[in-house]
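Summary of Year 1 activities. Much of the first year was spent building the evaluation harness for sequence design. The harness presents a backbone, in tokenized form, and records the residue chosen at every position. We chose the following record to illustrate the format because it has been used consistently in internal testing since the harness was completed.
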């Protein structure tokens, strides 16, 4: 954001003071709307102004609110250290400024948090920490400027005390801390405001972190054409486990079909053929008991993407199957038991990876097994952990969770925000693997397939609502596809 501000100001079309005035005006509008929603509550507003640009925005908001007739009190931290546009904004506030140490939330209907924004790099301490503790303990509505004070803009982590806001106003673009937990929970509803920074500055900044949304990957999707054939949409394969662990693979296979693969085949050991046959309709079934069977199947070059891991079992068979698929140049989604099978031999997997062919979908525990040193590095946030794993493995990495991060070996990372708490259910991850595989089978590149699959999976859960189980997810994908097609040029 500092670079975006600087590049914008360098054009000469707008100066820093104007950007700050626009930011403060946006905060004032949001504060006015919040107070209108609390019509029966005390209308007094406390504005907490910090020592940097966030403080400057806070002084502008305070002045504009006072001009509208609001009862406003400003509590300042480090006012004497303000410089530039922020110092000028503070001078334009001509009413009393009280020290932050005097702040008590009692008696205020709204508190505007303008202490620190996304650039904070250390935990809050002293007067700031005391004020935040008091604020969080009070029953008062909080509006944060840019990012709640105490939340890292890079990682979303709370650095000691951190403000818990009901609403956050930020500028130009969201920051990782708005999307990564616990920061996402601290932000409340996030409003992104245009203050006059041209999107073209991104061409010079070259951001590598994105919010996961259709605009990021919809151009790479393969929408069926009227004259197309099922083989135009790829043939996905899913490896089944033994007779007592077949359900996970069937969930993946069903999701692969709903994701758009033209054909999906379940490859089953002989012991599970009858169990699987009793449950399958559109999904085809073939026997695959050992490496020789797999080699014969791979002779069919139309089979172009596979899922290995859900319910498969941990061990050498999984390792050999994964290596054979990758050596044959096919795409592979490795999940669950497939990932765990390489915990003691990760280099063996990484050596087999080919560009744009491997997608790993670990949850935190599986990630720790495959990348123990990366997982243990407390100095990095989730996007950088996923990036490091992708660079080391040569795979697209889907680091799952409420704030799933998708990372590519080329350094791109996307943070997902779709989904619901109901996705924490058995088999949900198996469905995700199938969706990603179905997209890979259609020729979608690995990063885009993984990012789209994660978004679609979460959106399906949102559309279904409470009571979701994994079996419900594939059936919601037609509605997700309809939304994507309706918004894709």
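For this record, the design step produced the sequence shown next.
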């Amino acid at each position: 954001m500092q670079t975006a501000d600087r590049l914008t100001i360098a054009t000469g079309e707008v100066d820093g003071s104007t950007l700050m005035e626009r930011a403060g005006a946006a905060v004032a509008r949001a504060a006015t709307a919040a107070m209108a929603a609390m019509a029966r509550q005390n209308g007094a507003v406390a504005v907490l102004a910090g020592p940097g640009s966030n403080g400057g925005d806070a002084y502008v908001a305070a002045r504009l609110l006072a001009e509208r007739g609001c009862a406003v009190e400003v509590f300042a931290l480090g006012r004497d250290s303000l410089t530039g546009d922020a110092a000028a904004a503070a001078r334009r506030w001509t009413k009393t400024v009280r020290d932050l140490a005097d702040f008590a939330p009692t008696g205020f209907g709204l508190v505007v948090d303008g202490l620190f924004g996304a650039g904070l790099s250390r935990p809050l301490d002293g007067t700031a920490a005391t004020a935040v503790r008091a604020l969080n303990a009070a029953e008062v509505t909080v509006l944060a400027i840019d990012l709640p004070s105490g939340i890292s803009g890079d990682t979303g982590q709370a650095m000691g005390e951190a403000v818990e806001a009901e609403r956050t106003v930020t500028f130009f673009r969201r920051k990782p801390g708005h999307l990564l937990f616990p920061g996402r929970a601290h932000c409340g509803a996030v409003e992104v405001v245009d203050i006059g920074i041209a999107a073209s500055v991104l061409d010079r900044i070259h951001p590598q972190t994105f919010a996961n949304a259709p605009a990021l990957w919809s151009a790479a999707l393969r929408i069926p054409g009227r004259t197309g054939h099922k083989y135009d949409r790829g043939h996905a394969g899913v490896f089944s486990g033994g007779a007592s662990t077949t359900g996970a693979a069937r969930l993946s296979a069903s999701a692969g079909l709903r994701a758009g693969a033209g054909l999906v085949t379940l490859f089953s050991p002989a012991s599970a053929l009858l169990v699987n046959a009793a449950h399958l309709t559109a999904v085809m079934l073939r026997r695959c008991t050992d490496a020789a069977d797999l080699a014969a199947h791979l002779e069919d070059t139309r089979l172009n993407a596979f899922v290995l891991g859900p319910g498969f079992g941990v061990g050498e068979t999984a390792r050999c199957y994964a290596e054979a698929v990758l050596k044959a140049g096919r795409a592979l989604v490795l999940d669950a038991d497939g990932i765990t099978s390489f915990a003691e031999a990760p280099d063996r997997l990484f050596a087999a990876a080919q560009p744009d062919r491997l997608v790993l979908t670990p949850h935190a525990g599986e990630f720790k097994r495959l990348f123990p040193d990366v997982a243990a590095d407390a100095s990095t946030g989730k996007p950088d952990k996923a990036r490091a794993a992708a660079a080391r493995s040569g795979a697209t990495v889907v680091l799952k969770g409420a704030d799933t991060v998708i990372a590519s070996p080329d350094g791109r990372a996307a943070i997902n925000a779709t989904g619901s708490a109901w996705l924490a259910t058995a088999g949900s991850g198996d469905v995700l693997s199938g969706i990603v595989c179905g997209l890979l089978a259609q020729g979608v590149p690995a990063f885009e397939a993984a990012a789209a699959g994660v978004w679609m999976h979460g959106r399906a859960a949102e559309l279904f609502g409470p009571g979701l189980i994994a079996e419900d997810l594939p059936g919601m994908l037609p509605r997700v596809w309809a939304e994507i097609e309706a918004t894709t040029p």
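The mean pLDDT is 96. Quantitative recovery figures across the full test set are reported in Table 2.
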